[in-house]
Amino acid sequence: MKLHGLCQLFKQEMGGCIIDVVPSYRSILVSFDLMTIGHQSFVQKLQHVLDHCRGSLAEEAEPSLIELPVYYGPEVSLDAKVITDHTGLSFEEVINIHASTLYRVYAIGFAPGFAYLGNTDQRIAVPRKKTPRLKVPACSVALAERQTAIYPRESPGGWQIIGRSPVNPIDYQRKNLSLFEVGAKVKFIPISKTAFLDMGGVLSQEEHSLEDQRFQEGV
After folding, report:
1. What is the CB neighbour count within 10 angstroms for residue 42?
2. Tens digit of pLDDT for each residue in 139-190?
3. Domain at 65-204: CATH architecture
């Protein structure tokens, strides 16, 4: 049974005593209200759902598709050289491979709204940094092993930065807080620097001063 479907089942059958249901790659964290139900009773009810209600699950609807614009320009692709040196590809090839893949949201964690997306093409699989950056700019799009992600806010991070999106995946006015939910599909759409700025993308003063130029082959 898919984790997403099981999460929906828990919410449907036990919504009155559940506080939150958080899926990950191979497990689900279920938080419950001790003021509503005791621990033993909760475990028994959870087991009952697992034993008797699986067949009541309707076939899962097609997961939503999130199209996320990304600027892959030289001002924001901080680890372009690291990535091209490791893969042996030109950065244009890396961009084409990254943007041509349809990803799935496997888990959300590390920070609010940080979604682990997979799987990246093996050709652009790169290791995490040995020494993480102290500050990764908000909305940076990054690679690590067979995963890709977008940093919702400025934070430390050890993933390899490939670009930046004008769309922040965190919105505190949104009911679910995050743009992402486990099971959703994500497609990255390359955009120009002009489009990035027009859509609300942010560059630092230092980044603004850099000339918008093509990468040398293999850089």
Report:
1. 18
2. 999 999 999 999 999 999 999 999 999 999 987 777 677 888 888 899 999 9
3. Beta Barrel (2.40)
